[in-house]
Specification:
heterodimer, A: 204 residues, Helicase, Ruva Protein, domain 3, Dna Topoisomerase Vi A Subunit, Chain: A, domain 2, 4-stranded parallel beta sheet, 44% helix, 12% strand, globular, B: 265 residues, alpha+beta, OB fold (Dihydrolipoamide Acetyltransferase, E2P), de novo design (two linked rop proteins), 2 domains, 5-stranded mixed beta barrel, 3-stranded antiparallel beta sheet, 7 helices, 8 strands, 34% helix, binds zinc ion
Chain lengths: 204, 265
Amino acid sequence: MNLEHLPSTSPSLSRLIDELNKLPGIGPKSAQRLAYHIIRLPAEEALALAEAITDVKQSVGFCQRCQNLADASICPICADSRRNQEQICVVEDPLDVLALERTHCYRGLYHVLHGVISPLNGVGPEQLKLKELLTRLEGGQVKELIIATNATLEGEATAMYIRRHLAGRAVKVSHLAWGLPVGGSLEYADELTLSRAFQGRQEI
Amino acid sequence: MPVLKTYRTEALVLKNHPLGEADLLVVCYTRESGKVRATARAARKVSSRLVGHLEPLTLVNLSLTRGRTLDQVAQAQVADSFPALRNALPALSRGLYVAELLDGFGSEASPNPELYSLALEVLAGIGRSPESDLPLRYFELRLLETSGLLPELYQCVECRKPLVPGDHRFTPNGGGTLCSQCAPLGAHLRPLSVRTLKVLRLLHRQRLAEIPSLTIDHQLAQELKATLTASVEHWLDQQVRSSAFLDHLRRTTPAEPATESAAHA
Ligand SMILES: [Zn+2]
Ligand SMILES: [Zn+2]
């Protein structure tokens, strides 16, 4: 069977390729390859994939507290009473929570903004889950906010915006240290990273 | 003559977009080549030598390889990261406003060295007075001038008579100031007070660093902003997106001073 000629003869395959092509990082070539791969899969495997997509769209929502993606109205992290309820780590998106959880060094709670302030793209504070964050601070139980937005210009703008909005509140606001990546050499670091790494130096 | 495959240039990074898994599409403005769009392979990896060197509002020394559609960043070294802009929100948001206009008016086909110098002059000005909008107004007027679109400020664009002191009108789509007698069909008209016209002329005559301290009340600031932004958006044929965040900051700033800078000495 010559699969290269299928798209023109099979509207349903063309449709699958079109849909895959819409995914981030998937170009037309990769979309074709994936589609042909799916065609060759045993029926139950292909259906399991389709089912997983349907299921995730039906059951995943936002955790009422931290706004992370969750199957229930409260996510497992927020529901875990052993975690430090006085700390909230603010991140840009759900993948950042996974990355920080992998380190096993943070035992507080999270708050997912679902984006960053991006003036050039017309994304302002009101498009982020910031109101929800301010609501969480109202009870007075939270003592420290750790801002862990990316070290990009937009991540920094978002961090500065949050700090500005919390000025005068009885909550300690800190930021993840900026510094050199492991394996990074001084020679290639930009001057902003270097000067901040210097300011954030620690006694050893 | 053989075409050089790589070239070096100083560039102001205006914006960047993620591309694929770990690449970056960088848009910057240069003195010699105008606007340049280039890809930077793997620049989003923490381990990349390029990471941190290609953020918006950074002046970098670039080494680029010519490509068929887009050039590729081979090396990047920060020359100035404008810490005064990067460490405070008012200055940062004003810097981004400059970057957006530079992106909108800058051309990939024709270099404009004057515009490049202007942008650096204005970013330095924002760093000196981060809460002031005067550098932005200066930038807008000079941007129009270096693009050959300077609004007329000294005579009526319709009857060509010199403007006599009084209240005039301003037409962004008709080229500038109108006397009180003329009202051409199809021109969008805005009122233009004598004091706004005076500040516009001052911005046109003086360099930013030499403009004396001005007391600019809220109404004058609004009129200057409306007049120049209307002109800029007319030529851009779209709204300046980053102005929404600037407006938001102005609205939410507690106890903003009424003057643009210190009063007269
Ligand atoms: Zn949660
Ligand atoms: Zn006239």
